[in-house]
Amino acid sequence: LEAAPGFMLVVSYNPGYQRKIKELKPSTRQRFVAMSFAYPPPDVEAEIIEVESGVEKDTARRLAALGHKIRGLEELGLAETVSTRLLVYAAKAIAAGVAPRRACRMAVAEPLSDDADVIESIADLAALAF
């Protein structure tokens, strides 16, 4: 099998994600170049949220700030932190008429944890933002 001219294969994976299940062997990892990505700065993330959801700039900024705050709280013990995608989901709910605190609870707090105390902590952060 010969690849066509200009063919490119792009592989994406999250190191450490589901580590207990399967991790790439070093010999496999070394067959690829790597690019690391971090979350965008709050101002850039706010712009993404605004464009993707149609919410007002102020709402997008508040959601981006909430995401930044949650990501800095390792005390929450989250398996995964809040993604820009979840913030966009919250923004879309707000744009559709859901109250901001309710939108943050259903699109951010509840998907991130099953622990009632953690959910309430995230909901409290959302209440401070909105």
Describe this protein's structure:
By secondary structure, the protein is mainly α. The termini are far apart. The chain has a domain of 88 residues. The chain is built from six helices and no strands. The model has no long low-confidence stretch (mean pLDDT 92). The longest helix has 15 residues. The chain is globular and about 55 Å long.
Summarize the structure.
The chain has helices at residues 26-29, 42-53, 57-71, 84-95, 100-112, 116-129. It is mostly helical and 130 residues long.
Mean pLDDT: 92
> Based on CA inertia axes, which overall geometry fits?
globular
Q: Note the gap between the termini.
A: 57 Å
Rg over CA atoms? 18 Å
Structural class: mainly alpha
Low-confidence stretches: none
Q: Tell how many strands the DSSP assignment holds.
A: 0
The fraction of residues assigned to DSSP E strands is under 5%
H/E topology pattern: HHHHHH
Measured as a percent range, the helix fraction is 40-55%
Question: What assembly state would you assign to the polypeptide chains in this entry?
Answer: single chain
Quick one: biggest sheet?
A: none
Helix segment count? 6
